[in-house]
Amino acid sequence: MVRNRSSGGEVSQPEMVAIPPGRFQMGSSDAEEGHEDNEHPVRDVVVARAFALGRFPVTFDEWDRFAGATGSGLPPDEGWGRGARPVINISWRDATAYAAWLRIETGKPYRLPSEAEWEYAARAGTTTAYHWGDAMSPRDAHYLREDVSTTVLGTVPVGRFPPNAFGLHDMLGNVWEWVEDCWNEFYLGAPSGATPWLRGDCDRRVLRGGSWQDVPRQIRCATRNRNGIDFRCDDYGVRLALDL
């Protein structure tokens, strides 16, 4: 966690990781176990500029300072605890309001990542279903296990699982993460670069990463989800990006 002193007092900022430019294949092929049609067609994406992404999803510690400063109300934690757990029960509109507040308070260009930036960062140079390979184990991420009796229901504090090659924790599992893009059923017509896709169904926005209540095929690097901009859920959170 990084803190910044501004006119409004101490502001908690997410710990950020610099992500280098590069290119990658976005989406999944029919051969990948768990593949969905909305992950088609696989496309070559160029990430032309470096950017920063939160090392962890935004936590309750960070969000609660925003809520206290703006009077926006505290999202419920479902009794699982706050602190270093990822914030939940936030909508896409809430997430963008948090980023806007941080921009004003810190003077830094915080924002939601694009869907392409998110997947590029999640893969961290890999081409497998998960950034650690093609198989899942309880050592890798927080997800819904086949034997539900062994699953911790609800979120867990961030950083419990190993990071990917970029140093990012919890990109897969724990909570779904809102991104900037409007929802489109396929990648046909998507931007050639890593900018957000702001055409399509913009009343629904994309979420990535899967959560504690999803089975392994739903938390692959390529898995996509969507919901309305005001919809809140007990496994919806956010991870911020920052222009460099």
N→C terminal distance:
18 Å
Q: What summary fits the major beta sheet?
A: 4 strands, antiparallel
Q: Give the count of helical stretches.
A: 3
Number of domains: 1
What name does the CATH topology carry? Answer: paralog of FGE (formylglycine-generating enzyme)
| Proportion of helical residues | 10-25%
- The count of strands amounts to 12
Low-confidence sequence ranges: 1-9
| Strand order across the largest sheet | 3-6-12-7
CATH superfamily: paralog of FGE (formylglycine-generating enzyme)
Element-by-element helix/strand order = EEEEEEHHEHEEEEE
Organism: Plastoroseomonas hellenica
Domain Sulfatase-modifying factor enzyme-like: 13-241
InterPro entries: CTDL_fold, Sulfatase_Mod_Factor_Kinase, SUMF_dom, SUMF_sf
Region (Disordered): 1-39
Key structural traits:
244 residues, alpha+beta, paralog of FGE (formylglycine-generating enzyme), four-stranded mixed β-sheet, 3 helices, 12 strands, globular, disordered N terminus, SUMF_sf, Sulfatase_Mod_Factor_Kinase, CTDL_fold
What's the short version?
The protein is an alpha+beta fold and 244 residues long.
